[in-house]
């Protein structure tokens, strides 16, 4: 059963950054709450409070909520309207589908002068004769009842017939209270019977020794053990005769006719709770430890396994004579969660306990192998050198005798030939490298003396004045 705790309120106050003292709206619907508590202590600024579809049996502990404007208590087990006098700002009250039978308890709402709307449909009191007239006459500040607006003429008629209507309501309340007392007695009796049956089952499942012994020809055993065996045998036979499947039992429970009362709602809730616990027990039994995965068969054959379901690539690097495994592990996974095991014919990597194993195409050296993480991608790269040297195909090994003979022949040929250090220019027409690029001689910087300007003799007016410098 749920309770109103600080943690529950904080989880439902995310829209207010989980701050509860200044909370104005709070929704606690469908939390299996049985009692109203702690809300008036921690959330005194509440204006809207949703508590529908719970198991609340009494309105209590909300008198301090002076600013509360809307209270929703639909689909609960409330039988009486009470403890709302302190909610001075209450404007709307929803008590749809509850068990309010004492209609006269609405008189306490006269002090809630701001109350404008109330919902009582789906309650036993809503079936009383004169229900609407009584509510309209009792609460003069009310404007709407069960979603229907109250007209002025309707209020006048209700006030005129109020004494007669009030007497009828009281008689119907008495009859309902007697009926409810009988229902409560039957519900308590059924509950006690169920508890006794459960205790008997628990006692049967726990064997004991009562001091008596049963002597057999072969051995002596306690009498209680013999009695327990007989009971178990009889229970097995009965279960074979009256055996019902879980589906049949569930169908029988839901089809069984019951009264609509707070006790029936609680019984339904207990049944659903028991079913949930039984399913959890069955699931726990089914959850057995998985047998260890077969990595190597009985005949010694190594299997390829990729249980972590990671992408990988296996490259045979012939140039460097090594095999490289690139395993795409998660980038932000801690390296301590990985374990690499290199063997001559296979490599195994445990990623968070899940094995990755692959058979290698050639034999490798485990001692010379190494693993490292990529700093960019986070991949695990395992480098494994191969065993032995690289031998290329279609090449035959040369014997040392033939190699010695060829070396001797080459030395003889070299001794007969005359080696020349200089090149004969008559035989080879090579260009003269020294004359390809010609150096330019630097131009002389001496200024040649210019010839003096000789006056033209043809001009008769020309006079040569020695004091005038020559024109350049």
Give the helix proportion (percent range). 25-40%
Helical stretch tally? 9
Average pLDDT number: 79
User: What is the β-strand count?
Assistant: 17
Order of helices and strands: HEHEEEEHEEHHEEHHHEEEEEEEEH
Spatial separation of the terminal alpha carbons: 125 Å
Major sheet attributes: 7 strands, mixed
In which order are the strands of the major sheet placed?
A: 1-2-3-4-5-6-7
The radius of gyration over CA amounts to 53 Å
What proportion of the residues form beta strands (DSSP E)?
Answer: 5-15%
Query: Which regions are unreliable across 5 or more consecutive residues at pLDDT < 50?
Result: 213-218, 390-397, 446-450
Seen as an oligomer or otherwise, the chain set is single chain
Mass-distribution shape: flat
Structural class: alpha/beta
Describe this structure in words.
The protein is α/β, with parallel strands linked by helices and 472 residues long. The protein is built from 9 helices and 17 strands. The protein has helices at 6-11, 39-42, 131-138, 152-160, 162-205, 223-241, 246-255, 262-286, 400-416; strands at 25-27, 48-50, 70-72, 92-94, 117-119, 144-145, 148-149, 213-215, 220-222, 305-306, 312-317, 322-327, 338-342, 346-351, 354-359, 370-373, 380-385. It has a 7-stranded mixed β-sheet, with helices on one face. A 4-stranded antiparallel β-sheet has the order 10-15-14-13, with no helix packed on it. Strand 8 and strand 9 (220-222) form a beta hairpin. Helix 3 crosses helix 4. The radius of gyration is 53 Å and the shape is flat. Residues 213-218, 390-397 and 446-450 have low confidence and may be disordered.
């Amino acid at each position: 059963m749920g309770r109103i705790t600080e943690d529950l309120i904080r989880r439902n106050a995310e829209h207010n950054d989980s701050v509860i003292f200044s909370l104005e709206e709070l929704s606690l619907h469908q939390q299996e709450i049985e009692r109203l508590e702690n809300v008036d202590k921690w959330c005194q600024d509440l204006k809207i409070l949703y508590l529908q579809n719970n198991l609340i049996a009494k309105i209590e502990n909300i008198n301090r909520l002076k600013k509360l404007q809307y209270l929703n208590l639909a689909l609960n087990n409330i039988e009486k309207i009470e403890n709302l006098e302190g909610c001075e700002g209450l404007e709307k009250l929803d008590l749809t589908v509850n068990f309010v039978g004492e209609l006269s308890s609405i008189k306490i709402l006269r002090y809630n002068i701001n109350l404008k709307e109330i919902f009582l449909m789906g309650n036993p009191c809503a079936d009383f004769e004169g229900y609407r007239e009584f509510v309209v006459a009792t609460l003069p500040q009310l404007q709407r009842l069960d979603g229907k607006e109250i007209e002025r003429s309707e209020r006048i008629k209700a006030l005129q017939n109020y004494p007669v209507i009030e007497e009828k309501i009281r008689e119907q309340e008495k009859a309902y209270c007697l009926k409810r007392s009988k229902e409560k007695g039957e519900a308590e009796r059924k509950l006690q019977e169920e508890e006794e049956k459960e205790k008997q089952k628990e006692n049967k499942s726990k064997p004991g020794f009562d001091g008596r012994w049963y002597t057999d020809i072969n051995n002596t055993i306690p009498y209680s053990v013999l009695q327990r065996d007989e009971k178990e045998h009889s229970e097995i036979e009965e279960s074979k005769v009256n055996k019902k499947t879980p589906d049949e039992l569930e169908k029988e429970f839901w089809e069984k006719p019951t009264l609509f009362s707070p006790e029936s709602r609680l019984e339904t809730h207990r049944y659903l709770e028991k079913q949930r616990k039984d399913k959890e027990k069955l699931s726990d039994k089914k959850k057995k430890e998985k047998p260890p995965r077969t990595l190597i068969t009985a005949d010694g054959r190594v299997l390829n396994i990729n249980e972590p379901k990671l992408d990988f690539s296996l490259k045979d690097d012939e140039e460097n004579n090594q095999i490289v495994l690139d395993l795409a592990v998660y980038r932000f996974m801690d390296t301590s969660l990985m374990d690499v095991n290199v063997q001559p014919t296979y490599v195994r990597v445990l990623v968070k306990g899940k094995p990755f194993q692959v058979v290698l195409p050639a034999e490798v050296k485990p001692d010379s192998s190494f693993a490292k993480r990529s700093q960019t991608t986070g991949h695990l790269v395992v480098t494994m050198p191969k065993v032995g040297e690289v031998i290329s195909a279609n090449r035959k090994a040369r014997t040392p005798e033939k190699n010695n003979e060829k070396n001797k022949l080459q030395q003889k040929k070299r001794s007969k030939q005359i080696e020349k250090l200089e090149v004969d220019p008559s035989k080879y027409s090579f260009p003269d490298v020294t004359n390809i690029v010609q150096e330019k001689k630097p131009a002389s910087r001496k200024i040649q003396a210019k010839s003096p300007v000789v006056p033209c003799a043809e001009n008769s007016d020309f006079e040569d004045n020695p004091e005038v410098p020559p024109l350049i």
